[in-house]
Amino acid sequence: MKRALPYLVFGAISLACFWRFLFLGWTLYDVRSLEGHLGTRTPETPGWFAAHRPPVDRGDTILLLPTLHRIYTDGLHHGELRLWNPTLFCGYPLYNDPQIHPFYPPNLILHALLPARIAYDLNVLLHFFFAGAAMYWLLRGSGRSDAAATLGGVLWMLLGYNTLWVSTGILMGASVFAPLALLCLQKGIARRDFKPLALGGLCQGLVILGSHGQHALHLMIFFSVWILVSWIRDREARPFLLKGGALFAGSALGVGMAAILTQLDAAMNGLRVSGADLPLHYSTPWHPLYIAGAALGKVCAPTGPLGGLQRSEFTIYAGVAGTLLALLGAVRGFRDPWTRFLAIFSAATLLVFVKPVAEVLLQIPFLNLGMPARWVYVFGFCLTLLAASGLDALLEDPAKSWRLLGVSAAVCLVVLAIQYGRGPWVESLIGLALAGAWILTARRAPRLSLALCFAATLVDLLPDFVLFNRHADPAPLARPVAALDALPSGEPWRATGGLRLAGVAPREDGWYFSIGNNLLALHGAEAVMGYEAIAPQTVVDYCLAINGGKGVMGSGRVLAVINPDSPLLDLANMKYYFMPWPFELGPRFKKVGVWGPMTVYENTAVLPRATLASRALLAPTEQDAYAALLSPGFDPRTTVVLQGGLPRTAEGGGTIAWTSRASDRLELQVDAKADSVLVVSDTNYPGWEAELDGVATPILRANLAFRGVAVPAGSHRVVMKFRPPSARNGLVLSGISTIALLAFCGRRKRSPS
User: Fold this and answer.
1) How do residues 445-480 score in pLDDT, each as one tens digit?
2) Which pLDDT tens digit goes with each residue over 2-27?
3) If we measure between CA atoms, which residue out of 171, 457, 140 comes closest to residue 323?
4) Parallel, antiparallel, or unpaired: how do β-strands 639-643 and 615-618 relate?
5) Structure pTM?
6) Number of structural domains, the chain?
7) Which residue among 119, 143, 186, 451 is least crowded, i.e. fewest CB within 10 A of its CB?
8) CA nearest 734: which of 76, 96, 78, 102?
9) Residues 621, 622, 626, 628: is their CA dihedral positive or negative?
């Protein structure tokens, strides 16, 4: 029973957080945000712990994940690994989103076996539980007491970044396999054994496959610095550490190669403007409470003039009890090299909240694909380890610890008083009172003290975790949309606009026009633009051409149609415009109908998704392509602007019939009366391959952003498939590396004869 107690604790916390999924079938998809968009959300009665989270209108767990999971799961159920999402940006690689992790083994297994929504929720639940278990194994393997290891597991499950982002899935691999990687790393160094280091590299490779690339990189740096520190400290072990460090790093990179190559592919062929959202996160970087608010989010949650996105990006990183224990562990154990390293490294990570430091980090390639604030995940990792050390120090000698804890608690009270009324101070005050209670009872009633310690942690952290990861009835996800159901099916078409954004007036910046595309995609439509992590560069160029240099926002990941009169939209097969507000469109649009607050317009000049061009123009540069497409004499129904080659064409025309159309495979039957160019208005992106009558043929960049194939006169079968070399080569390398590591770790040492 004693051995099972930690897992019962982790299971009880998981049950408290996920019981609605387990027993009611509810989901972590942000359905409430969807209802807010559609104007169907019902007012909620606030509970004892007030909802301090501001309203969210662009949550990834509703605007992105359901659509991506649907495509990914449907492919796996048909025995395919589909990597192309046709519903936004006229199509883009599914792996451009750092939350989907298409090569992560748990994702592959669960989504292959279960419906998309159940696979998603169950995946989050399992990683949440095993995050606590993995941290417990790490701490026990590091020599911590059972109580300290259990507390560390609880903290790791509920700590800030998990509180904010667990439902997005960006931390799944890191939450479980980062502690296991460190455990193997420590054992390998202590025993001077290569096998644990190889196994640790395998775990870190799973971190890479199953986490946001920036978090995986930060953890890799953290582990590498510890190997370097160990190499500096121990002269005798240097030859081993040099080889062992190379084995750990090589194993991690080899196993994670599928994610590494595809993420490099996305970074090189997409647009992400580093530092564009810096003012939102660092509006007042020199405020005296800024760093305190970032580190001790539950005590000091910056709001008001300190605001920006801090309420959703920087809040709730540590509970009061966990923070006080971490401070105690750092001070009491500072002579220990490992504890000293954790204290120094965690303090260094807080420097990312100083604006000049953040600006420097944004100049470093691949460290700048997101805000430097993501370093706070490593801060939470260090804080968890220090908190477990602090609890052991308290249990071993309460008399030497309570004074330090008392002073720290007093500082927290002062900060709380300054911030009174600005944040979740009621929860923090209760957590602080419970933390003080377990300090006072530590000597005379250690069991009661331990119970109060857990109570302080859970009261301070659990309500916020539930608040930021609230389950909801998934019924609205399947609710039909009258405006979409009334439109014809059959030939493919695209749209833009939005289903409804309740109570929001049109904005010049286009954010809401962009989000509307994601709402359309959520309900099965295909959209011209949208909101994602990284947008393909060709579509960004196309969006700028449509809008006269505007329409690209949010570090380049938010694209919107703010100039519906542009004739370039016709090329993209943009047939319908969904408007939830009164809006006057040009003469090319006719009103289709009105459904509640939604008016749908049809573009009468739209081109079909696939056309045959009998005349081709060569544009050496993108500027030349812009000029040709916008010239008065350009006829998009018969002419195409190509970049990269000019095939032979002649007048004649022909017919096109769609044979099949899946997310990453298209098949068309083309009957051309003369040599022509088949133009498919889907995004041209590296990895698309074409076949003409079973023979490979090159794909040309057509009309700035789309795909073209030269077709000779006659009847032909044209197939286009998305088979990116980055994914193919990465999967091969990841598979070979994993097999080699398992074989290496599983071999037995030969006994001396």
Assistant:
1) 877 887 888 888 888 788 778 878 889 999 989 888
2) 788 899 999 999 999 999 999 999 99
3) 457
4) parallel
5) 0.93
6) 2
7) 143
8) 102
9) positive
